[in-house]
From TrEMBL:
<protein>
    <recommendedName>
        <fullName>Nuclear pore protein</fullName>
    </recommendedName>
</protein>
<keyword id="KW-0509">mRNA transport</keyword>
<dbReference type="GO" id="GO:0017056">
    <property type="term" value="F:structural constituent of nuclear pore"/>
</dbReference>
<comment type="similarity">
    <text>Belongs to the nucleoporin interacting component (NIC) family.</text>
</comment>
<dbReference type="GO" id="GO:0006606">
    <property type="term" value="P:protein import into nucleus"/>
</dbReference>
<dbReference type="Pfam" id="PF04097">
    <property type="entry name" value="Nic96"/>
</dbReference>
<keyword id="KW-0906">Nuclear pore complex</keyword>
<keyword id="KW-0653">Protein transport</keyword>
<keyword id="KW-0813">Transport</keyword>
<keyword id="KW-0472">Membrane</keyword>
<keyword id="KW-0811">Translocation</keyword>
<dbReference type="GO" id="GO:0016973">
    <property type="term" value="P:poly(A)+ mRNA export from nucleus"/>
</dbReference>
<dbReference type="InterPro" id="IPR007231">
    <property type="entry name" value="Nucleoporin_int_Nup93/Nic96"/>
</dbReference>
<keyword id="KW-0539">Nucleus</keyword>
<dbReference type="GO" id="GO:0005643">
    <property type="term" value="C:nuclear pore"/>
</dbReference>
Length: 604
């Protein structure tokens, strides 16, 4: 089997596992494959990862429409890709959406997302989650660096797993080179590297353990700060301890020969001083996030300054973003700049599909900031927003993605467009309806989208998966008429049997084309053929339109077609008889009043 086939098989298996996780978990792989192909037969038109993503979107929408519970899109999307960089990007999205406040954001009005994102509570949670990701990844890094066979043993009494991990890492990292390091050892390793890397791993208890076991009384302020941060960081004592640390750092620690001591004190004091220890982008960002203050005066400004530095001052060129996409995405996403991160990925061929689905997941959580004007570019800045907030045009993102496959994969296209159901343009029009109108015009697939009413029943359309297609068709038909697409509106109304609207549009078109030459294939010829079909079906199956004027107008206007045909053929006696039978034109004085009265009832 070729490698591409293996990858396709893996991705298809993931699709089937997702689709059957909640239903029929005992099905065989063959049964699962048959079911996925039966439910979503057009997935074969998409690539393997696109198909996998599409199946999740469809499953999500179907669950939403059936009120069968909300699916965790981030978690479902995370399962799909196998590539390391993409997996890591989704891991970052998982971390940044696992905030305590996220569950409250479902009820937030879209226009209030910016306001919510700028609150201290939200920023605090973004900082915590960003740090948590960086700390967890550093633990993995330390684990990979450790060679257990060459490490000294550590006493197990009351020692945390993080302490043992850091102890092993410091032993490997420093290799006994302790020149300039101060304040003694802890279990054979220098104190401040142990404290610093415990902090870097996010384990305050392990850092406290190091300091308390060192038994030096001058570090009690640091211990008190760590204990307060661990138990009650909102306590007024925490600010007092922090002030003491800043003062002691300035007077006693800043000129220390121990870089780990300087770094640990600077971080605990909230001092914006990057030491030589922070060598990687992850280290840099972790230090910076630890500098962010959440007090009313400076919290938001400091966080925005960090965002501005990464996005505006440094930007794509500084980080060589297109050669290091994971790095740049990480810096943006971990500082809560989701819109800029997605915009960047969307501009790369390899990550475009993943960017779209990250946007979908964030939008469904009400964490994405979009412009009110959906005609704007993909990324834009609203002058009313605080810098450096950017807005991502979610509607444009979805439509740009869908247009690549909407002609071949109508069902999938509609499912993606359904994600715009809450979006409106500046005129207050629902973007889902507008998008369905555009899709109808592009594909000319009225029957497939909206269904068709037949003598022996109704053939449901794809739109019935989301809403009452007939009611939806009324609005779409009106939009088609506004665009002067009368033929498309006629086909739509005829297919779903909206008789009043059908006759209204037919009357408008008949009045416009009746006197034109009836050339084969002309608009006049098409309208005449459609009018004959409608008339025959109404005669056969009945017409439920209660407005007699519109029905009578249709009959009269349809009757004018043979009159003009006879007139053009110079068969004047027959033409005169045809027009007289319609009772439109008076041929006697006595008929004038009646004909005028009838004419006033016409609907054109």
């Amino acid at each position: 089997m070729e490698w591409n086939q293996i990858i396709d098989a893996i991705d298809l298996q993931q699709v089937m596992e997702m689709e059957n996780r909640e239903n029929n978990p005992g099905k065989s792989q063959v049964e699962q494959r048959e079911e996925i192909e039966r439910i979503y037969p057009t997935l074969s038109y998409l690539g393997s990862i696109e198909s996998a993503y599409a199946s999740v979107v469809m499953h999500y929408n179907n669950s939403f429409n059936k009120n069968s519970g909300k699916i965790d899109l981030v978690d479902e999307f995370f399962r799909l890709p196998n590539e390391f960089k993409v997996k890591e990007m989704w891991e970052i999205v998982k971390y940044m959406t696992q905030m305590p406040s996220v569950s409250k954001f479902y009820s937030i009005v879209k226009n209030d997302v910016v306001k919510t994102r700028n609150t201290n509570t939200f920023i605090d949670e973004l900082v915590v989650q960003g740090n948590r990701y960086l700390e967890d990844r550093f633990k993995i890094y330390m684990t990979n660096k450790i060679n257990n066979g060459n490490l000294p043993s550590v006493a197990q009494d009351d020692v945390t797993s993080t302490f043992r991990l850091v102890h092993g890492f410091v032993s490997v990292r420093l290799r006994g080179e302790y020149v300039g390091l101060q304040d003694g050892l802890i279990h054979g390793c220098p104190l401040w590297p142990m404290v610093y890397y415990c902090l870097r791993a996010g384990d305050l208890s392990a850092a406290i353990y190091c300091l308390t076991n060192n038994c030096l009384p001058e570090f009690q302020d640091v211990i008190s700060l760590l204990e307060c941060k661990l138990k009650n960081p909102s306590s007024p004592h925490f600010r007092m301890f922090k002030k003491n640390i800043k003062r002691l750092y300035t007077t006693n620690v800043r000129n220390s020969t121990d870089p780990f001591k300087r770094s640990a004190w600077a971080i605990l004091g909230g001092l914006d001083e990057i030491s030589e220890i922070a060598k990687t982008a992850d280290d840099y960002l972790w230090v910076k996030l630890n500098m962010v203050q959440m007090d009313q005066e400076s919290g938001c400004i400091r966080y925005k300054n960090l965002q501005h530095t990464i996005l505006e001052e440094h930007g794509e060129s500084h980080y060589d973003a297109f050669k290091q996409p994971l790095l740049y995405f990480k810096l943006l996403a971990l500082t809560g700049q989701f819109e800029a991160a997605i915009d960047f990925l969307f501009r790369t061929d390899n990550f475009r599909v993943h960017a779209v689905h990250m946007a979908i997941a964030l939008c469904e959580l009400n964490l994405l900031v979009s412009p009110q004007d959906t005609s704007l570019p993909l990324i834009s800045i609203d002058p009313s927003d605080a810098k450096p907030v950017h807005r991502l045009n979610f509607a444009l993102l979805i439509k740009s993605y869908v247009e690549k496959f909407d002609a071949e994969c109508l069902r999938e296209a509609l499912h993606y467009l359904f994600l715009l159901r809450h979006c409106k343009n500046l005129e207050g029009q629902h973007l889902f309806k507008i998008s369905v109108t555009d899709l109808t015009i592009k594909t000319k697939a009225c029957e497939k989208i909206f269904g068709k009413v037949q003598r022996d029943g109704i053939i449901k359309g794809l739109l019935d998966e989301f809403t009452d297609a007939k009611m939806f068709a009324e609005d779409v038909g009106q939009d088609l008429v506004k665009r002067d697409l009368y033929e498309e509106a006629i086909d739509l109304y005829d297919g779903v049997n909206i008789q009043y609207s059908l006759l209204t549009v037919m009357c408008k078109m008949l009045s416009k084309v009746a006197n034109l030459e009836n050339a084969p294939g002309s608009l006049r010829n098409k309208i005449q053929e459609k009018a004959i079909i409608v008339d025959q079906r109404f005669s056969r199956e009945g017409c439920y339109v209660q407005d007699a004027n519109i029905v009578n107008s249709f009959i009269k206007l349809k009757g004018l077609l043979p009159f003009f045909d006879l007139y053009r053929e110079k068969r004047y006696p027959e033409a005169l008889k045809a027009i007289y039978n319609l009772k439109i034109v008076p041929l006697r004085n006595a008929e004038v009043d009646e004909r005028v009265k009838n004419l006033k009832k016409f609907t054109f």
